[in-house]
Amino acid sequence: MPTTTYMVVDPRHDHSFRIPRPDLSVSIGVPNACNQCHQDRSAEWAAAAVRRAHPKARLGYQTFGETFTAADRGAPGGIRALGAMMGDSTQSAIARASALQRLARHADRTAIDTARDALTDPSPLVRAAALAVLERLPPLERRAALPLLDDPVRTVRLAAANLLAPLAADALGDHAPSFERAAAEYVAAEHFNADRPESRTNLGNFMAERGAAAAAEAAYRSALSLDETFVPAWVNLADLQRMQGNEVEAEATLRAALEVSPGNAELRHALGLSLVRQQRGADALVELAGASRAAPENARFAYVYAIALHSSGRVREAINVLESGLTAAPADPDILAALAQFLAETGDERRAAAIRDRLQQSN
């Protein structure tokens, strides 16, 4: 059987037999079995050959590729298609869980309602993915997840404990003992993998959510002692300092991180936000611009940079940044809403109306 190399060094044989779909290679760019052998031919040639041999389409059972691609590309209707997929009982649990993971990036009311319904799904994959969507809610609105603290599957219990960590004991109510048990499991799991900076950073985040600032800082610094280039530990440490009212210290942390990882987009974005909070607008724009240029695929960086430009009176430049951001995320609701507003401010009502129509279609 043919092999695919995973994680750069691990070639694995593919023992599955599926209906070849070169038509999907044409439409969404996925590989297909035909062209793995006929490498001198195009996907269009392979798709035409399949149509000649089988005039009646045979699509197989994996029909979620187009839905995922539409959502990933921000195509109009992509989010609605994910919601419809969640209601399709013929889809596999892993496909529906993957749909929820994509919904978590948007978390509008439809996504939240879909996730709440999925909390009682028979599949633990789906239940755990539903919890990720609810992370977008304020802590007190996450209490629908309280029963999952006693879920029979450990992965789900850990995800529920992480989601509910910000809740005070009185908000947990009768579920407080269940939370303490699940929280202990979560901490033990991260300690088990404490040779990795990811686990120590996860532990720091959990402690920060619980209000244990000293323990959170210790976890972040221990993560950096393992790998000083691990950006999430730097960013979360700076955010912890911000929450404690130490904005100057947070700035110093981010500048120290940039000495280790020069030009990192996430660090520059975080530094720009710190400078905004310190009312150092000109310096903030430099960092936010650098982040947006370094990661043009990140729609959030473009949006924040455009808002900062608009706040400084540079409306035309803000519009240009938002229009560039739409290249990476054509249906991003924040970018579309801001662009419509800024165009209207310049008197370009025709283009503003067109953008508002796109925004409506994307919902």
Structure description:
The protein is mainly α and 363 residues long. Among the domains are: 18-60, no CATH class; 65-137, Leucine-rich Repeat Variant (Alpha Horseshoe), CATH 1.25.10; 299-363, Serine Threonine Protein Phosphatase 5, Tetratricopeptide repeat. Helix content is 66%, strand content 2%. It contains 21 helices and two strands. The protein has helices at 22-28, 33-37, 43-53, 65-72, 78-86, 93-103, 109-118, 124-134, 154-164, 169-172, 176-192, 197-209, 213-226, 231-243, 247-260, 265-277, 281-294, 299-311, 315-328, 333-345, 349-362, and strands spanning 3-6, 10-13. It has a two-stranded antiparallel sheet with strand order 1-2. Strand 1 and strand 2 (10-13) form a beta hairpin. The longest helix is centred in the middle third of the chain and has 17 residues, at 176-192. It is globular.
Total of DSSP H or I helical runs spanning 4+ residues: 21
In the CATH scheme, the class of the domain at 65-137 would be Mainly Alpha
Instruction: Give the proportion of residues in helices.
Output: 55-70%
Structural class: mainly alpha
The proportion of strand residues reads under 5%
Shape: globular
Largest beta-sheet characterization? 2 strands, antiparallel
N-end to C-end Cα span: 43 Å
Enumerate the spans where pLDDT stays under 50 for 5 or more consecutive residues: none
The CATH topology label of the domain at 65-137 is Leucine-rich Repeat Variant
How would you write the strand order of the largest sheet? 1-2
CATH architecture of the domain at 65-137: Alpha Horseshoe
- Tell me, rounded to a whole number, the average pLDDT: 93
